[in-house]
Amino acid sequence: MPLITLPPAAQLAAKIKAELSGFAEVQWLEQVDSTNSQLINRARQAEPESAQVRPVLLGAYHQTQGKGRGGRTWKDLDKTTLMFSCAFDVDMPATQLPMLAPLCGIVVCEQLRQLVGAAHEHRLSMKWPNDILFDGAKLSGLLVEAVRPAVGRFSAHHHVVVIGMGLNLSHAKALSESLQRPVADWTSVLSSLAERESKAAANVSSMVALLANAWYQAILQYQKTGFEPFVARHAVVDALKQQTVDVLNGQELMFSGQAEGVDKNACLLVRTDEGVKQVIYGDISIRAIDPMAADNG
């Protein structure tokens, strides 16, 4: 399958906007420092005329200062990664904002599963808090940030939530060699499928619109019901289910155990020798199976 072709930035923005009637603005740039940073900075601007009507979507073909989770730098090759961010107004206390990170990952995985079709949906999964995997290799990562808007606050709990996503479109082999870990890309995903449920799977504008609208609907639901309804949805896409995992804080091993899903607060549950522990933050590494141990078991 040939590489996914990307139209000029303005043309892509127009196509996405046509499918996102509920969004106030859709913009796509050839290059930007960081789509997340741009939307966060707009929300922080104090001039009354800068008050934005949201939701807003901002994408770019290249980011010079892309951001990943935990303060990491997101690096991309020009036009090999689908990168965009959405800004939403939410009315919720700061204590409820962390749950949005896994929630958004669940939604992305669900939508991508629809695109690849029922026969292959099991190959797509979500590694808590929100990495999207294909056959165990990382396909996409998300970064969720929140800020109090400088102007136009409608309540004491008004926050602007910015969700950023980077999805590898091509060059997975080069990325795997560079990062020294398995990486997947959407071109390879589509090439490996005998059939697909929807033409949107190879249509970048439709895929972006699908994901952005799914985030919007999920956030609206979360504001009404909390995270509890998403617990069962997480179980369906959970890449860590019954896996032995290491919970890390940077390079420091905090503890190990068996992953047992998430609770109603979106915390990962890990069963250890001392009992079940909640993971609120940290990196999760799946423990490799020792083939000798498996043979002797």
As a percent range, the share of strand residues is: 25-35%
Number of strands: 14
Note the main sheet.
7 strands, mixed
Helix content: 25-40%
Task: Kindly report the name of the CATH homologous superfamily of the largest domain.
Answer: Bira Bifunctional Protein, Domain 2
Instruction: Label the overall shape.
Output: globular
InterPro entries: aa-tRNA-synth_II/BPL/LPL (IPR045864), Biotin_CoA_COase_ligase (IPR004408), BPL_LPL_catalytic (IPR004143), Transcriptional_repressor_C (IPR008988)
Keywords: Ligase
Domain BPL/LPL catalytic: 21-223
Protein name: Bifunctional protein BirA
Task: Give a quick set of tags describing it.
297 residues, seven-stranded mixed sheet, SH3 type barrels, 8 helices, disordered C terminus, 2 domains, alpha+beta, 14 strands, globular, five-stranded antiparallel sheet, 30% helix, BirA Bifunctional Protein, domain 2, single chain, ligase
